[in-house]
Design brief:
This protein is α/β, with parallel strands linked by helices. It folds into two domains: 86 residues, Rossmann fold (3-Layer(aba) Sandwich); 107 residues, UDP N-Acetylglucosamine Acyltransferase, domain 1. 15% of the residues lie in helices and 28% in strands. A hairpin with a 2-residue loop joins strand 3 and strand 4. The N and C termini lie far apart (56 Å).
Amino acid sequence: MEKIIIFGLGDISQIAYFYLSQNSDYEVVAFTVDKEYATQNEFENLPVIAFEEIEAAYPNTEFKLFIPLSYTKVNQLRQQKFSEAKAKGYDFISYISPNATVAKNARIGKNCFIFEDNTIQPFVSIEDNCILWSGNHIGHHSTIKENCFIASHVVVSGGVEVGKNTFIGVNATLSDHIKIGKSNVIGAGALILKNTEDHKIYMRKATEVSKVSSNKIKL
């Protein structure tokens, strides 16, 4: 079994440990985090080591990394740590749930975290350092550029290009054959029908509260 170190001590890193421990051929041996955040010696009964000191204890010739950080700063934090780990000479794993449906000719890069119930159709390309939470549809001939985060139940139609570092919220829908700019934030429930610009936020208005009290209606 390949030996893996997970970066981070937050919820997503704990979830990654759960999946890797329960449903993979990898052995998680430790967690790592930047020295200033290494305030505990253990996490999930495994050692925690400062990222600045990782090479001495876990050399890159024997261990690989998994960096399942969230979409903080439009995915820039995960991008930064991925680059720093590459500079240290580490290779990465990707975790693809056995309960995801992935076409045989789909291409998936390094340090990707693909949850259960994702449908990834033929000729899809998912580049390095992407997270796809549960239940998404990624249509044929679509490309998800590096460092993206796609939340649950998103529909990416066929032939779409999603620009790097983009975040797509739950239940968003992207029409076919459009190009999403880089570092976009696509809000929950958004419907995108045409190309978007770089570094833009596209939000759907939230449901408004009724002026009628719920105590006055019969359900």
